[in-house]
Amino acid sequence: MLAIVCPGQGSQSPGFLSPWLERPGVQEQLASLSEAAGIDLLAHGTTSDAETIKDTAVAQPLIVAAGLITAQALLGDDATAALVPGKMLVAGHSVGEITAAALTGTLSNADAMAFVRERANRMADAAAATPTGMAAVVGGDPDEVLAAIAAAGLTPANMNSKGQTVAAGTLEQIAALVAAPPAKARVIALQVAGAFHTHHMAPAVSALQALAPSLTTHTPAVTLLSNYDGTAVVSGEAALESLIAQVSRPVRWDLCMETMGAMGVTGLIELAPAGTLTGLAKRGIPGITTVAVKTPDDLQAAREMLAAHLSPEAGTL
Q1: How many whole angstroms separate alpha carbon 97 and alpha carbon 240?
Q2: Among 78, 94, 141, 308, which residue carries the largest CB count within 10 Å?
Q3: What are the Malonyl-CoA:ACP transacylase (MAT) domain coordinates in residue numbering (predicted)?
């Protein structure tokens, strides 16, 4: 079983899309996605600085667009049609779950960009209402980490693995956790501009619920895992409901990885801007082989992994 995974906010870095412009059609694809997103993704992916692309309204559409471009480069013009049920599954972390929905055909690319545009803008509005942020807690005893997060008044917004939990809340609460970290743990501030996946984002949920009737959903082409509990969503409608609710509830990537392990995932390809989820998988899924598709130079290794998992000898689940 092969997993294709899509990263979330904070994975972007200045200029990360520049190498992809060498591929035919990418500039045109970016122009189309930019129109749907209402921002210049070409500029933000190539020349904008770190502070600019940290902005939620920029980062989220940029990350989804990057994943769609990478998927097309890897799988062909009709990426969804290249997915093979029983041999492949797809999952995305936080905003990457929108990329995953588009890749599986659950949402069209246009609807995915319309959704992420509204999500990003409304989450940015919610973040501007109160200065909030997120910080990764790496290491430490899991129970002690959760206790320290609670003591600081924070929410465990991302449960990424047994050794990494992301706390979210006001900047004062983040500062309190930094000042009193759990034993044997490090607290690292993240390059995000709000307390995502917490009650602070409730206004964005309402806005997305209002948008939902204008979107068309389809049953995922292959297994699509939900950030809510790591299980497969059963319909397009369920996937959209999960995407909306995810904005203000914790991301359980740890449970997604548990499901991957239980389903026999032996290979994992992370779409651009790649690196974070492959790192988590190496520590969280024993024996897994990974490819992080950061630049076009990584496509060959990804194609080789894809071919190995789709060969007749690989079998089906």
Answers
A1: 10
A2: 94
A3: 5-298
Which residues are catalytically annotated?
94, 197
Per-residue pLDDT of 121-131, as tens digits, reads: 999 999 999 89
Q: Kindly report the average pLDDT of the chain as a whole number.
A: 94
Spatial CB neighbours of 309, under 8 Å, sequence gap ≥ 6? 1, 2, 87, 88, 266, 267
Q: Residue 233 has which token pair?
A: 């969503």
Which among 121, 85, 112 is positioned nearest to 239, based on CA atoms? Answer: 112
Q: Quick check: 65 and 37 in contact, CB under 8 A?
A: yes
pLDDT at position 189 is 84
- How many Cα neighbours within 13 Å face the side chain of 110? 5
Helices (H), 130-234: 142-151, 171-179, 202-211
pTM metric for this prediction: 0.93
Kindly report the backbone phi and psi dihedral angles of residue 310, in degrees, each rounded to the nearest multiple of 5, phi listed first. Answer: -100, 0
Within 25-150, strands assigned E span: 88-92, 132-139
Do 150 and 178 contact (CB within 8 A), yes or no?
no
Report the alpha-carbon angle 38-42-47, nearest 5. Answer: 120
The residue count of the chain comes to 317
Q: Are 60 and 127 in contact (CB under 8 A)?
A: no
Q: What is each CA distance from 237 to 29, 124, 217, 240, 244, in whole angstroms?
A: 27, 25, 6, 5, 11
Q: What is the pLDDT of residues 44-64, one digit of tens each?
A: 999 999 999 989 899 999 999
